[in-house]
């Protein structure tokens, strides 16, 4: 018998075409965090539907998601509408709904990263993360935390000890959290999977001593390369908490030393 | 007779309701740059229509624009659709079209910045710009440049001399351009005006020695405060040119020393 090589990520983001650019999906309860479903996972499901709507452009280059209401585990429909498809890129509008209520509205431009110029000129610096064995596994989180955030069981996360003070009541105040990440089943992620990785870590406001729910208004992800297999390094920072909001900048680096994704989200400041 | 206090910006972004969430506009030829109309200006026109569609939420908090085709001077229609309006924020989808062709598609969340918490915790640092009188006026640009870019006449721009080497064939290679900016008529800009400011400077790739047209795929602007009247400081940086694309991060600071807007765009790398 052939071994089962379907990853948990592929299973949880499976979609089936229902005609007219609509795709059916089922949001898995394993991605629950607090009162809803992880926004990065929901975006991954939408991202997969968009890829299916423009088969010649398999990779997200830029995806912007506006979060309208909390998603719940269970059936969902993704409706896609191709706004323009040219030779190099295609732009698509998409919405994910549940029982007639829109959860997120998305605009995205997809292309084929393998066909883009290979020229790289970066001044960005790889996150300085201690070796895996010196980092703090997410599995050490208290049982109570893990019960309200089953999403933590989707990943193998290893936090930089310098950025994990918030877990023991000593946040650094720098607005910085970084970690090694791979999926719990060890399967590598594709380019669409990076949409989820950009929203996988706890809110960076934890490191500012502001715990609590920080609802995302908007998340934009730019994908710049298909990630190499293996551990990803994920870094989140915020520089400006103002107007009741804060931005969270994320970088994802792969084992080949490439900055494979950059994202920024705008979230509501947690209530004191 | 009362003096005319209507600013050029207000005149150029004027919209008139045409019913069912549609607004008529006229794109002014004064914003032409090369073969099209400046994308920030077009976004400003859309931003004004969105504000009109949700009158209790006058300020853009987050606006994401996907550019589909080059806009031309002349009539345009903006269609808006309110996706959700709650007590604090409203999310709206909008498209600007000309003669049946969509130019840009936009998702946005608006609110009232005056009603948001005044708490500020920023680690962002104000751009180190020399005093106005030590900076290089945009009006010194060669006649030929100004002829293909009438948009330059909309602003009083004063470039940091350390970031203007590209104008004389000596780009710094740092991927950084910054300048003082105000409108040519001296009128202050409102929060919607910041959408345009984030796309007003020349592409930051000029400073990498890569001149040429860099078409924007996507631009997201976060507005965090209504700007104080007076000169704005605008800083553009890129850190990662890869996959045929580059990101351009912009910050806008006001005279009150506040980071009033942050933006990131993804653009196609100019052809060598």
Automatic annotation (TrEMBL), chains A, B:
The record, for InterPro entries, names: ACOT8-like_C (IPR049450), Acyl-CoA_hotdog (IPR042171), HotDog_dom_sf (IPR029069), Sec_Metab_Biosynth-Assoc (IPR052389), TesB_ACOT8-like_N (IPR049449)
**Can you give the residue ranges of the Acyl-CoA thioesterase-like N-terminal HotDog domain?**
28-111
Q: Where is the Acyl-CoA thioesterase-like C-terminal domain?
A: 133-268
Spell out the Gene3D superfamilies in the cross-references. Answer: Acyl-CoA thioesterase, double hotdog domain (2.40.160.210)
Coiled coil (UniProt feature) = none
Source organism's superkingdom?
A: Bacteria
The record ties this protein, via PANTHER family, to:
CHROMOSOME 23, WHOLE GENOME SHOTGUN SEQUENCE, THIOESTERASE DOMAIN-CONTAINING PROTEIN
Protein's recorded name = Thioesterase family protein
Which organism is this protein's natural source?
A: Nocardioides oleivorans
User: Which lineage?
Assistant: Bacteria, Bacillati, Actinomycetota, Actinomycetes, Propionibacteriales
């Amino acid at each position: 018998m052939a071994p089962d090589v379907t990853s948990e990520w592929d299973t949880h983001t499976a979609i089936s075409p229902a005609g007219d650019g609509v795709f059916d999906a089922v949001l898995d309860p394993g991605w629950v965090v607090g009162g809803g479903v992880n926004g990065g996972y929901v975006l991954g499901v939408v991202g997969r539907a968009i890829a299916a709507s423009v088969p010649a452009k398999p990779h997200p280059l830029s995806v912007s998601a506006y979060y309208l209401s909390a998603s719940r585990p269970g059936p969902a429909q993704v409706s896609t509408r191709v706004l323009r498809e040219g030779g190099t890129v295609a732009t698509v509008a998409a919405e994910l709904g549940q029982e007639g209520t829109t959860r997120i509205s998305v605009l995205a431009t997809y292309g084929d990263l393998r066909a883009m110029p290979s020229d790289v000129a970066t001044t960005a610096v790889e996150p300085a993360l201690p070796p895996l064995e010196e980092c703090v596994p997410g599995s050490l989180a208290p049982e109570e935390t893990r019960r309200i955030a089953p999403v933590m069981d989707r990943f193998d996360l290893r936090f930089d000890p310098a950025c994990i003070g918030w877990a023991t009541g000593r946040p650094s105040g720098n607005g910085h959290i970084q970690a090694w990440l791979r999926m719990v089943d060890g399967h590598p992620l594709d380019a669409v999977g990076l949409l989820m990785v950009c929203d996988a870590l706890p809110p960076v406001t934890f490191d500012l001593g502001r715990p609590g729910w920080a609802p995302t208004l908007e998340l934009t992800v730019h994908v710049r390369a298909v990630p190499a297999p293996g551990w990803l390094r994920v870094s989140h920072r915020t520089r400006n908490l103002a107007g009741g909001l804060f931005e969270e900048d994320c970088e994802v680096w792969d084992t080949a030393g490439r900055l494979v994704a950059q994202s920024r989200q705008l979230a509501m400041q947690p209530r004191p």
